[in-house]
Amino acid sequence: MNHERSKKLFQHAKEVIPGGVNSPVRACKSVGRDPVFIDHAEGCMVYDADGNSYIDYVGSWGPMILGHRHPVVVSAIKATLERGTSFGAPTDLEIELAEMVIAAVPSIDTVRFVNSGTEATMSAIRLARGVTGRDLIVKFDGCYHGHADTLLVEAGSGVATLGIPGSPGVPEAFAAQTISIPYNDTESMNRVMAEKGQDVACVIVEPVAGNMGLVPPEEGFLAALREATQKSGSILIFDEVITGFRVSRGGAQDLYDVMPDLTTLGKIIGGGMPVGAYGGRKAIMDQIAPDGPVYQAGTLSGNPLAMAAGIATLTELNKPGVYAELDQKTDHLVKGLKEAAAASGIPVQVDRVGSVLGMFFRDKPVKNMDDAKSCDLDRFTKYYNAMLEKGIYLAPSQFESGFVSTAHREEQIDNTIRTVKAVMEQLAGK
Ligand SMILES: *Cc1c(COP(=O)(O)O)cnc(C)c1O
Q1: Cβ-based neighbours of 248, under 8 Å, separated by 6 or more
Q2: Which whole number is the average pLDDT over 295-299?
Q3: Engineering a disulfide at 371: which of 17, 180, 366, 429 sits with its beta carbon 3.0 to 4.6 angstroms away?
Q4: Atom of ligand 1 nearest to the CA of 116
Q5: Average pLDDT over every residue of 62-68
Q6: Catalytic entry in 239, 351, 371, 376
């Protein structure tokens, strides 16, 4: 594969953009290569600046659950564009998307739209602190909740990929307000909550961890969080920026039947446009300005184009059988990956929750960030590069998840499985 044009673009980008990218993981540093620059995409395919095509399992890091340029989403954006791009005043589209979110996500009574997942978690935490009058927050190692100051402690995703310890620029006094506990460690969580629970404003968690690779919650973990937070009067926040409308229509809370007080959303609900949201019980949400004292605002919040893309996406997802089809396709892929790995003799852990999948180069299951860090990262790098050269576009880090869309057909999934088989054999030296 020729990547000349991508190489040139990256050289140029580095002169004008720090690191050449507007989000760190895109730089592909940890897999020892330059990124490919994308020219366009269609369905489950992305096409780079050199004219190479790839089957896409990144899906813009989750939002593209219908694939790229889904006709219903494209025409909704076009129609809205004809009426204007931003007014800084309310529109009917905001009500429509809010109603769709409320109808689907069981614990949400009212919802506020923002522009990114980072803004959603940051605002939800401010609200939790405002409502409880407490400062401490509890999170879990390897969970990523965006890049707000208090949340960059033991964060997953790019922070884990690049091996950055916390982050310079976050005042120690802020980091000191955050307690981070190993994921799936109910015992440690109970100990911390027994000791400090009365000072804990909120516990925030990815109900299915997707930013240290895919790590599902162990039986009883989420229920234990619910119980401990109820006891201490702390707010439980499910960060469903990945899992919302992904692992099921009602998100992870519906799938595991554990109800948080607040939920953050993003990615899918914007249909590929920049959107985030936070919502929950009305009594808590009413504490936000203008009705309440907790301030949060946004010039472009509830942007009409983003609302239109979100409405179109959720409308498609409302059709019967969509999630069953996604499950079936992802299951097929996961089985194929397991068989390919087994045939090569390379130890891997493959798992999925709905249409999110994860693959770790490790011989034992991954339950937390320490497990994830002990994976064979050199082997992942070789795997990643070989897959890319054979036309499969994966997230460039062992600590990220893969996403299947409704646009992936059997043909492309079978092609992917054949490619994995060939690459695994190559890695095993067979
Ligand atoms: C992506 C992500 C975020 C941050 O969303 P941005 O839109 O990138 O700011 C927050 N939480 C989780 C779980 C995410 O996966």
Answers
A1: 254, 255, 323, 354
A2: 97
A3: 366
A4: 7
A5: 98
A6: 239
